[in-house]
Amino acid sequence: MKIIYTLIFLLGFSVMTVSGQSNDPAPKQTKPILLMNGVAHLGDGTVIENSAIGFADGKITLVADATTARIDMSQFEVINIEGKHVYPGFIDPNSELGLEEVSAVNATVDVRETGSINPNVRSVIAFNTDSELLPTTRHNGVLTAQVVPQGGIISGTSSIMQLDAWNWEDAVIKMDDGIHLNWPSRKIRPRWWMGETEYSENKEYDNSVAEIEKLFNDAKAYAANNHGVVNIKLESMKGLFDGSKQLFIHENAAKAIIESVQFALQSGVKKVVVVGGRDAEMITEFIKDNNIPIILNGVHLLPQREEEDVFMPYKTPALLHAAGIKFCLAYGKGAMGERNLPFIAGTAVAYGLDKEEALKTITSNTAEILGVPDLGTLKIGYRATLFVSEGDALDMRTNKVSLAFIDGRNVKIDGMQEVLYERYKAKYGQK
């Protein structure tokens, strides 16, 4: 009987998904477009109060002050966005978008592989462009994501994807950008289901670290020599030692961040990024000395320690900025909530971070850290991935995206919720 109920649930879910499907990718841009008279937030800290933003063939061709620039508008499709705001598309790092649909339904979750050492696992080929979460996420201006596998000691290899495509081949912006390492913890969290209330010692910590050390030593030796037989795990790690891939170390505790970063640098890894970094404000000198960028998770979580200021997670972005740390923000709590990324930045504004600096933490800073320099800024020659909001895009009360473009393509922003709303409004009439 349990099997029958499960099948009925999955069938109902599939029918719901098909009926609400609105994820038909937009066609290629065919005519130059000019957005006139909007407030342009360029993503580099600059604001143009009355702007002219033009793009053609998927690239930005004009960024100007509309009050002073002389523009031949005959060559453009002109869209008047007076009173609205235009932003570079938001970039979501450390994301599970396209890998997870409904976390409670195993058949829709493809975020992890069996085993604990999987550097060769590639998220790119598992990316589901038909996910209903993609239009929902685009609805808030998030147009690009770093899609990251989860679990184990080495989860696998991430890729950077745009969120409107027929298949993963069309969606990929940067393939296999980095490998993700979950540094072992010295302590194990209380397992409430076993009645535990205190942290306990991780007796496997030394063995796990030794396993990581052996893997990296083997990978470094493998990368330095030609081999007749390909080892797919070690082959996937070669880029760490020539700088073509980054090592993303997932860790929050200050001591563990120091240990893991020192290990990576001593192992010959060229580029290291810390993901999590909730204790980063405690070790800012170490981070600056080693030029380590931070992908900050957990702004909308409680503090890690009982004695901490309850608002410390909200204040951390402002503290990192004041300390001169290069960082960006991630939602980091599952694919279902990735659409809320801009409001994480909005919280940072409420607790001390300048608004345009907060915008950089989900646009230009993210693009720089992930190694996609032609995204995240409204700049001539960059990708025309941008959107228009009727209000402040960092404020959940006023952000209302009315237009969105990915590589100049005018993409749909109506997710399943909007499709169903319009359907039943038509049926029953607006009240």
Topology readout:
Layout: H1 2-20, E1 33-41, E2 47-56, E3 59-65, E4 77-80, E5 85-88, E6 90-95, H2 133-138, E7 142-147, E8 154-162, H3 168-171, E9 172-182, E10 187-188, E11 200-201, H4 205-223, H5 232-236, H6 239-242, E12 246-251, H7 254-266, E13 272-276, H8 284-289, E14 294-296, H9 312-322, E15 327-329, H10 341-350, H11 355-360, H12 364-370, E16 386-389, E17 401-406, E18 409-410, H13 416-428
Parallel strand pairs: 1-4, 1-5, 6-7, 9-12, 12-13, 13-14, 14-15
Antiparallel strand pairs: 1-2, 2-3, 5-16, 7-8, 8-9, 10-11, 16-17, 17-18
Question: Mind explaining what this structure looks like?
Answer:
With about 425 residues, the protein is of the alpha/beta class. Helix content is about 30%, strand content about 25%. The chain has helices at about 1-20, 135-140, 170, 205-225, 230-235, 240, 255-265, 285-290, 310-320, 340-350, 355-360, 365-370, 415-430, and strands at about 35-40, 45-55, 60-65, 75-80, 85-90, 90-95, 140-145, 155-160, 170-180, 185-190, 200, 245-250, 270-275, 295, 325-330, 385-390, 400-405, 410. Strands 1, 2, 3, 4, 5, 16, 17 and 18 form an eight-stranded mixed sheet that branches. Helix 7 (about 255-265) links the parallel strand 12 (about 245-250) and strand 13 (about 270-275). Residues about 1-20 have low confidence and may be disordered.
